[in-house]
Design a protein that fits this description.
Layout (H helix, E strand, L loop, with lengths): L1 H51 L4 E4 L5 E5 L1 E8 L2 E8 L7
Antiparallel strand pairs: 1-2, 3-4
Length: about 100
């Protein structure tokens, strides 16, 4: 009889613990998803502000999501009657 009560106690305790943990982790997961969405929205606003002010230029995918930053630079060298000019492009290795 004592063994049966111990097994029932173990099952009930496990069930209560599982329910409490499930509730806690679901709430934490929902809070994390909400915070991530807010941060994504704020990042989008900051990137748009930088781009519209002319401080930065971003490359985008087909859906308009920012995928990288475009860095443009140019320079010139004047040596006597000759002029040398160049434009560089920074790309990720293996991609253009």
């Amino acid at each position: 009889m004592e063994m049966l009560l111990a097994i029932i106690g173990l099952i009930v305790g496990s069930l209560v613990t599982w329910c409490a943990a499930k509730h806690y982790y679901e709430k934490a997961s929902n809070d994390l998803a909400k915070e991530a969405n807010e941060l994504k929205h704020l990042n989008t606003l900051m990137l748009r502000g930088l781009e519209e002010s002319g401080m930065a230029e971003f490359s985008r995918d087909d859906e308009g999501n920012v995928k990288g930053m475009i860095i443009q630079s140019s320079g010139s060298l004047h040596a006597g009657p000759a002029t040398v000019k160049g434009v560089g492009k920074v790309t990720q290795k293996g991609k253009e």
